[in-house]
Design a protein that fits this description.
Strand order of the largest sheet: 13-14-15-16-17-18-19-20-21-23-27-28-29-30-31-32
Shape: elongated
Structural class: alpha/beta
Oligomer: single chain
Distance between the termini: 138 Å
Strand content: 5-15%
Helix content: 25-40%
Radius of gyration: 43 Å
Amino acid sequence: MGNCLSISIPIGEAVHRCWDFVAGQVPYICKLEQNLQALEAEAERLTEQRDDVSRRVLLEKEQHMEPLKKVVGWLERVDKEIKEVEQIRGDAPAQIDNLCLGGYFSKSCCSSYKFGKKVVQKTKDVANLRTEGDFLDFAERRPAAPVDVRPSEPTVGLESTFDKVWTCLTDEGSNIIGLYGMGGVGKTTLLIQINNELQRRRNNFDIVIWATVSKNHTIEKVQDEIGRKIGYSDQRWKQKSYDEKAIDILAVLSKMKFVLLLDDIWERVDLVKVGIPIPRQGRGSKLIFTTRSLDVCGQMEVHKKIMVDCLTPEKAWELFQIKVGEETLDSHPQIHGLAKVVAEECKGLPLALITMGRAMSSKKTLEQWEYARRILRRSVANHVLPGMRKEVYPLLKFSYDSLPDDKLKLCFLYCALFPEYFLIRKRELIDYWIAEGFLDENDSICDRNEGHNIICTLLDSCLLEEVDVEHVKMHDVIRDMALWIASEIEKEKYIVETSAQLTEAPEIENWGMIKRLSLMNNKIQSLRGTPDCPHLQTLFLEKNYLQSMRLAKDFFQKMVSLTVLNLSKNLYLTELPMGISNLVSLQCLNISGTLIRELPMELGSLSKLKCLNLEKTLNLETVPEKLIYGFSRLQVLRMGRTGLCASRAINGNVSFSRLECLECLKYLNALTITICSDSALEGFLSSHHLQGCTEELYLDQLEDDSLFSLKTLCLPRMKRLQCLSFKFTSMEEVKINWEKEGRKIQTPYDFQTSVIAGERNFYNLWTVDILCCPNLKDITWIIWAPNLRNLFVSDCHRMEEIIGEGGVAAMIGDLILFEKLQRLTLISLPELKSIHRFALSFPCLDVIEIGSCPKLRKIPLSCNSAKGRRIIIRGVQQWWNELEWEDESARDTFLPSFQLIF
């Protein structure tokens, strides 16, 4: 028999265990209906919660939010649970029918037990699921595409500017970058290039945002453009206040490393009000914007300003060819040459090149191209090619419309009277504005300051371009646009026929309507007839071939409103026509650069004259003193480098009368003068009035008239002096006179100087020419001219130093020597050994020219002097070979810039 397993369990314990089991399971049956009701209640609450969460997720999605994975998973589990509850709900009636004896027993105990247990478990599951659904966050910001690539066309000529901007993106110190330039020059195109390149090149930015600001922008408009990129675009967000929007934008961008590209800014955008975190060093975010105004760059507190300039002639021609197309260019053998001329007339402005190129792309006859060339070369506002009028000028006109007042607009339009390519001298332009009454007349000095401020505003608006410290110019496309505005918008009657090869004044149908007439830079020899011009205020005849004998006596008779007359640079003009005396309204007369010998007394009738320009009238010998006394309103008198010097009286007797008659001009605020004698110089140095208004002073071959011996020139403090030139043999030293300016100290170099902090004698002095001063040993005094641009020294045979070593440190303090110097010329200085004992920084220097200075073996240059600039050094080969340098690297730095002079 096999083995048997025997288990022994006490009877009582077995019964007890069986009872516990049955008692534990009975509720699944006897409480089934109650448990089903509990499940229904929990399921209903779960369904409501699911609907709430689903609705919240839908709202978040509308705001470009991404639902959290835990929320999506919960919703999926809820749907599954609800389906299972529905199944239980469907099985419930049959299970309830199985119940008997008041619900305490079942006809199918096993089935009811399992079902009842399932109901209880599902109720717990639903309750747990409800607890899991108590979310604090439902969604997160959907990650935007880092860069939205913008439509663009191939570009030409922007490569170097693009490289500058791209360098700023990697430079931690350049966080706010301003791109400025005139309308149509390609600023937006460049910004698009930057945007798209950020998508192509790997970078560490989280997001790139583009917003077009435009004129008359609002904070909300900028916020909405930024909001669309970062996920705020629903109607609910748009209805928020701008403060609430700023909070939302700041919350997102403060967590990101962003590049914000703002196109077409016309005024300061308040970044804080928009909600943009200010890009600062160390945070890595960047702001790049475009503007037509340099002033806006200052308002935006940029770290780097980059000018977007017109294209070079080569790049302009390349762009023009692309837009015209090879088929058109090759359609006639001569079209290629004419196309180059047409492209040149666009002066490198991309918008004009593109517009003209597209307009000419279908023109395949020689006649069509000849017509285009002829029209583009004419300056008459009525002759404008349709494409320029429709597309280019309205775009550029925004800059004009943005000028803050009518005064600035008048001054801008006035600049269009000058020829193409013309270098407009700032001070003469202001002279004309004063005479025309454009500037306030309460204070004559304030007039000139206001004039300079207007020029700065036009420069900042990119409506003028600065050539140098003395000159500005107007881009030809801007100029043509200005003539178009004057004629068609402002209805000003401007007739401008400059550089047109005219040999006589043009036939004008209605002289009576003309307000401003410019015939500059022609070959006009005669002025005939008596034109009836009651409204003519401005007449520019500069640089013609006018001959005194061929000027009609009555030509000016009916120009009763003429305010400005410019006859300058007429080299055949030897005397003024008598008819000028009829110009009783004349306030500015410019006869500089003519061969006029005298000013007739008849000019005394010009009692309103404010500006008289006699500069470079080398044959001028006579100006009646009574005439000067009669010009009681004269504010500007320019008589530098004339044949008429302040020296001796006409009868040969020594006299100070010429300077005395100038003293009586109480409104005089701008003077240029040539002085030719010691005594006249003494008279000038004793006149605080004349010193205070002198802009240019020429001391030319001073005669020793025995009143005092001039061996030391003691220069007074002349705050307005811009140009100083002296040429005389007796002078041995130059000193600075600081009388009445403060306590004087004596330096080891025997200079009189002042301890007044921040005061400098010659703050506006730009040009110094020193010639034929054989006893002069140095010109250390020029350290008091911190804005000196040009220094020319020649034929000073005893000069040993430019800046003397003795006492310089005591005098200059924290001055940076030659900080603005652009050109240094030293010729025929046989004893010169030093310019300055130490190497200097020359941040603006372009050219150093050295000739016949055999003892000058060292120039103050080191590797750090140029600071990235190319300084051209001109001299003979032997002098260059013998130069001593701080080290070889310094020599190697400047070797490529050396040019021979002969």
